[in-house]
Every structure is written in C-alpha cells, then in structure tokens.
Amino acid sequence: MKEARFIALNREKWKGMEERRESLDVETVAANFVELSDDLAYARTFYPGSDVERYLNALAGTYQASIHARPLERKPLWRFWTDEYPGLVARHGRTLAFALVFFVSAVGIGFFSAAHDADFVRLILGDHYVNMTIENIEAGKPMGVYNDSDAWTMFISITLNNIKVAFVAFAFGLLFSAGTLWVLFANGVMLGAFQYFFYDYGLLFHSMLSVWAHGTFEITSIVIAGGAGLVMGNAFLFPGTYLRLYSFRRGAADGLKLVAGLVPFFVVAGFIESFVTRYADASPVVGAVAIVLSAIGVVCYFVVLPYKMKNKE
C-alpha cells in the first residue's frame, strides 16, 4: 500500500485520537494505544524515516504517558451493558445490518419455498412437529406446544438451547464467515417455513401474536450472534491495513463480547416463552403487549442507544 493511501485511510482516526485523548476513559486510551502501536509498526516496516512514522511515534508516546499517569478504573459489571456493549453494536453496525438483511432474506426464501412445495414444511420442521401442531390446531390450541412442559423446566431448556445456538453461530465464523452465514440461513428458512405453515391454516396473525412475544428478543439476539461471527470471520478475511493475525484477534475479541453480551436477552426471551407465550392462545392481547414492549426494548437498546453513542464520538 502506498504511503498516501495509508494516510488517507487513517487520517480522520488519528485526528480523533489526538483531539479527544484527554477526555477518554483509561480503557479507551489503552485500546487506542494498541491500535496506534500497530499503525506505527506498519509505518516503520513500509515507510521508515517518513513523516507519518514520526507523527505516529509522537502520538503513541503521548498515549503511553497518559496510560501511566492514570489509575486503572474498576467498573461494575453492569457498565459493560450500559457503555461498552452499545459501543460495540455501533462500531460493527454495518456488519450487524448485513446479518439482519441476510436473515430476513432467508425467512422470505423459507416462506416462498413452503408456499410452492407441499412437502417443504415437513422437510424443514419434521413430521413429528407438524403432526403434533395439526392436532393442536384441530383441538383449538394452535400454540399448545408451549403448554406441554413445566414452565421452569421449559425455561431452563429453551434458554440454554438458545445460548448454544448463538455461540454456534458465532463460532462458525471461524469457517471464513461462511459457517455463520449457513447458520443464519438455516434458521431464517426454518422461521419462514414455520410462519407459512400457520398462514396455510389461516392462523398467521394468531401465531405471530404468540411466537413473536418471545421471538422479538430471541430472533434479534440470534441475528446479532450471527453478526458477531461475521465480525470475527471478516476480520481475518479483510484485515485492511492491519496484520492478518492482529486483525483476527481484534475481530474475535469484539465478536465474543457481542455474543456473550446477549445472554441476558436470551434469559428474558426464555422467560417470556415459558411463562407468557403459553397464555397467548386464550388471550392474544398478552402476546400483543409482550411484542410491543419487547420491540420498544430492542429498538431503544440495539438501535437508538448505539446511534447516540456513535454521534458523540
């Protein structure tokens, strides 16, 4: 890469680091120092003795002095979700948005395929589930599957399974992002086929009031977990100006934080699915209220808060 392009790609970043250094917390200062050190190493390797090398050396020196001058701040754990996590969502917003668009496209494919192939729903959801649900529909309880187990047993099982799916979606990012895309695609197609199944029985709205009561948090979290896998996989595939191994380590760290931070949301989704969704058959308004509250929570936390934090930078 030519020196002029290296400078053009990083000029605004360095300028921001220089201007905001005094107002940053110690953890951000340390993270910026690591990033500056990597840029400095690159400049020393490819542009030795250049002005950009001298500039980065001086800037990194001021950050190093700032780190030694500040005491280490010990933040309570909850600050991770109020400060660091929304910042991660903002930083990787484009990747997470791509994961959402890809997932929604897979849902459309599942719905369309089920509409044009009578056997597709059974192929995706399995004969046992389809036959059981048809029996529940005929009995007047389309969502009867949510009443089959003890609430607490169901809560633990569902929550642990959702967390497992999220970490699998993330870990499959190691397969050059393709593994994560497959997990998102498979889950999207399954959701699309599921929704068409109820549409075919004239129960689409009823099923949405029931399923999306917990699905708002659950599906959002799975999409973000997939985005976390793409963050890791893409960091290896597209290192930019960084060394590939360093870029991968950064992407893996950010991705792991993104997926680990979803655990409380899976707990909330599991609780709603186990203790609230079971009442949606008899009282659809219960599902409607849960959907509205969940949607407000998702939009405020995963969209509005990261947007505000990004604009403050």
From TrEMBL:
Keywords: Membrane, Transmembrane, Transmembrane helix. This is Stage II sporulation protein M. It comes from Candidatus Odoribacter faecigallinarum. InterPro entries: SpoIIM-like. PANTHER family: SLR1478 PROTEIN (PTHR35337). Pfam families: SpoIIM (PF01944). The chain crosses the membrane at residues 96-115, 151-174, 181-199, 219-243, 255-276, 282-304. It comes from the Bacteria. The lineage of its organism: Bacteria, Pseudomonadati, Bacteroidota, Bacteroidia, Bacteroidales.
